[in-house]
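Request:
Um, any thoughts?
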Amino acid sequence: MLDGSFREFRCSLLAKALVARGHDVTWWTSDHDHMRKTQRYGHFKSIELSPRLRLKLLPGPRYERNVSLRRLWHNRVVARRFLAQARRCPSPPELVFACLPTLELAQSAVTYAHELNVRVVVDVRDKWPDIYLGVFPRIARPAARAALASEFRRASDTLGAAHAITAVSESYLTWALQHAGRRRRDNDRVFPLGFDAPADVSLPESPPHRSGPDIAKSNRSANGSLTVTFVGTFGASYDLETVLEAAEKCLATMNGRVQFLLIGDGDKAASLRRRAKSLTNVTFTGWLDAPEMSRRLEETDIGLAAYGMNAQQSLPNKLFEYMAAGVPLLSSLRGEQESLIKENHIGLHYEPHSSASLIDRLAWFQANPAERLAMGARARRLFDRSYRADTVYGSLVDHLETIVAGSN
């Protein structure tokens, strides 16, 4: 919404849905562009995006690494500045919707709501501070958890003070309620991330639609060629090292017929690029805007979700982005995503940190082009039924309206 043609995520999609329903929205967020690690303005900025939607950007110290002491400092500065600025607002909101992460800003939002005696919903999109523990070796995690005791208290206090908790998956909601120290109530609900996909790429039930991209994919299938695409952050929870190991082996065993496209950036980008320097079947693109991302996914045969053994994500953004593109998934993430893929026959699972397992699944896709295309079609139909942004966020707006009505 603010960052040009880059794709919109949860808060932006919710804000648009609220405005479409006739609500006034003030959206508070950091001035720091988390994906590109740049500051948008470098100072407090209030922007009227539409007559009913105001964006308030809060400045904070720059950071380069997502999990770092400087990131924690940034979070705390932004949270303090939010509370100071929000307290100056002349009229109180009817509802506060606080996103976790970040812990600090969510806690300040809860504090602000309680000061005004208005309802506050905490929306859980990631398991903070548990995610910090993944940076440490398993043997060091008990000590790390003890060192982060204040952050775990912050999570418990914030979630425990919420009038309702929403989450992007069932496992995240369960986690949040455990930290809140209470049982699930009627207003505690799951709303998946969803995706705002173009309406003109929907795949009909039958017969299969043979569009330009589909024909190109079928032609590549004739000689066993595959384009495998990863979209995401090159961070600690992603296992792209194994992908590069598999790419190297594919050069020797599959004659370059498997091409890997890595879209994104992050903490490990430089080391990954160095490692892939001699791999002619690996391409790095950096971050792409939404139209270019859509074009690349149209040319993709398999959407890759490459996670490490200790990844704590459940149903992340890329799942819905791949489904919207009508491509099958190849995923190493366990839990809810693995179950959804298997139960709906929309892809395959491979073992994390195992290039042999990854190559085995790629070989299966090469040997079964018709089923691969069918998996992609099923993925798109499932997306259209359950995960389109207008469906997900329309339901979330209904839920928030019910919470406000119940507080009167």
